[in-house]
Design a protein that fits this description.
The complex is a heterodimer of chains A (260) and B (275). Chain A is mostly helical and 260 residues long. Chain A has ten helices and no strands. Helices cover 70% and strands 0% of the residues of chain A. The longest helix of chain B is centred in the middle third of the chain and has 16 residues. Classes of the chains: A mainly alpha (260), B alpha/beta (275).
């Protein structure tokens, strides 16, 4: 499970993508995810994935992405099998591709944006600071809780817990001895963090200033324009072109596996 | 009998956390495991109940190779009390909490009932038996965690930092309990930073440093060896430090003192010699 999270964990690196304003990266992530939603054909989805991978490569983070993909493999196979039960194989494949596109689009964001900068970006987008801060805290505690989950699992397995035992309902119930301690200790920690924040005068001034200000540069504007252009073009190709000039899209664009 | 045979272990390939650890622990031994943060103490003990399997080498518990045995099977023999009691308490009542391991290991109903009652009483928790574990105080939660592991009556018990955040009274209770456990020929392994506690509790010390077993011997020999302790980044007990510093003024003063009684005897002898 933890391998999937690899593509959503910020790593400090010096790359073109890391230097972008978080608002730009967020815009791109949302834009590319929307792109993925417009298509159910394999070819365009692969093209979108290629585009995203280009940017992940620019962020010098392809290795983390690959590792996550390996973690996603089990889920992907599961979706593939379930879908082939009532849909053509091509559709099953493109459903999996869509999931990978979504995952990759947001991994582009989370790989390159420090949680603190994300909070700053939210504030710039007029989200109240308390909420923005709560969000960056949530991201910050994901690895902590992941480590804690492993410790709890070890502790319960030492008491003879067998996660794989029993039928499906029983298997779900087997996780209770792990889930409950996670929830309880997370609540305990939340209360402690709240006290520690208050003792450091959190929220003392209504208007906060920050040490470094976010600034949109030329490259940010350029990338936002690029994303807008791509999304706009897609909208045109999907909704307008089939009516106004049929035959614009070559046949290979709709390529699918022959039905079985 | 616990046997480690040239055990190497790494979480990430190329970064070994345990390096060529070999040791044997006989039934009835009370062993302390000490070492700096990140030395590999917890990693080492997790091999004993099969939570971790060696990358190279082998670990045997009563003749069973841990690589071939599940943690659930080993749980009958090896009890493991984790550092933080909150990482294992989850049940609705104290009784359910103690019964959890017994259910998992498929003990008969009558036996479960008997043991739950017995172990709640042993740790002075009977009056809360129908309550939620989360309403207990920190010390009580620690005791409950202990009861919920011990009720299986394992022949090997591993305690990870049992004295952390415990008051003097709680430590005394723990010491008494460990003593009774030892007398029934059970094996106890104590992972700790608390050298003052270790010196009272154990009869053998293992020192781990950067994944290597640096020393294995009697607490007295190890704790009065300053260069060894320095390498392992450990401080000797205060009384040993006292003996060393006093020894700079009085060369005849014994330097291998580890207990209060020894220190009193030595000082007394010194005073009567002066007269």
């Amino acid at each position: 499970m933890s391998a999937i999270l690899e593509a959503f964990r910020f790593k400090r690196k010096d790359s073109f993508m890391h230097r972008l304003d978080p608002r730009t990266t967020l815009y791109m992530a949302v834009g590319f995810s929307i792109l993925g939603m417009f298509f159910i054909e394999i070819v365009p989805l692969l093209m979108i994935l290629g585009l995203i991978l280009l940017f992940i490569a620019l962020a010098r983070s392809l290795r983390q992405w690959t590792r996550s993909l390996r973690g996603l493999a089990v889920l992907a196979v599961f979706i593939l099998v379930i879908n082939t039960l009532y849909a053509p194989l091509s559709l099953a494949i493109s459903t999996v591709l869509r999931l990978i596109v979504l995952m990759s689009a947001f991994s582009l964001f989370f790989l390159t944006v420090h949680p603190d900068d994300f909070a700053l970006a939210l504030v710039k987008l007029h989200v109240p600071y308390d909420f923005a801060f709560a969000f960056s805290m949530a991201v910050r505690y994901v690895p902590t809780i992941a480590t804690e989950t492993e410790t709890i699992r070890d502790a319960q397995m030492s008491r003879g817990l067998e996660l794989e035992r029993g039928n499906l309902i029983r298997k779900v119930r087997n996780y209770l001895p792990i889930l409950i301690p996670i929830i309880v200790s997370s609540i305990r920690r939340a209360l402690q963090v709240a006290e520690s924040l208050e003792s450091r005068a959190f929220g003392a001034t209504p208007k906060r200033t920050s040490l470094h200000e976010l600034r949109l540069r030329k490259r940010d504007v350029a990338l936002m324009v690029f994303t807008t252009f791509i999304v706009g073009l897609t909208l045109y190709v999907v909704f307008v072109a089939p009516v106004s000039c049929p035959g614009l899209l070559p046949d290979w664009f709709h390529w699918a596996l022959p039905p079985m | 009998m616990i046997i480690f045979e040239n055990v190497w272990f790494s979480y990430t390939p190329g970064f070994p956390v345990l390096r060529d650890v070999s040791l044997q622990i006989a039934p009835g031994e009370v062993v302390g495991l000490m070492g700096e943060n990140g030395a590999g103490k917890t990693t080492l003990v997790k091999h004993i109940n099969g939570l971790l399997k060696p990358t190279q080498g082998a670990v045997y518990v009563d003749g069973m190779n841990t690589r071939l045995t599940s943690t659930a099977t080993l749980a009958r023999k090896v009890g493991f009390v984790f550092q933080n009691a909150d990482h294992q308490l989850f049940a609705d009542t104290l009784e359910d909490e103690v019964a959890f391991a017994l259910h998992n290991l498929r003990f008969p109903k009558g036996e479960i009932k008997r043991r739950v009652a017995r172990y709640l009483k042993l740790f002075d928790l009977t009056r809360y038996r129908g309550q939620s574990p989360f309403l207990l105080s920190g010390g009580e939660r620690k005791r409950l965690a202990l009861a919920s592991v011990l009720c299986v009556q394992p022949s090997v018990l591993i305690l990870d930092e049992p004295t952390q955040a415990q008051d003097a009274n709680q430590k005394r209770v723990l010491l008494e309990f460990m003593d009774s456990f030892r007398r029934s020929n059970h094996t106890l392994l104590l992972v700790t930073h608390d050298v003052e506690f270790a010196v009272q509790a154990v009869d053998r010390l293992l020192i781990l440093s950067q994944g290597r077993l640096l020393a294995d011997g009697k607490p007295r020999e190890i704790l009065s060896n300053p260069s060894l302790l320095h390498r392992a980044r450990l401080l000797p007990p205060q009384l040993t430090q006292f003996a060393h510093q006093l020894g700079q003024y009085v060369p005849t003063f014994p330097k291998d003192i580890i207990s209060l009684r020894e220190a009193v005897t030595a000082v007394n002898r010194l005073l009567s010699a002066k007269k």
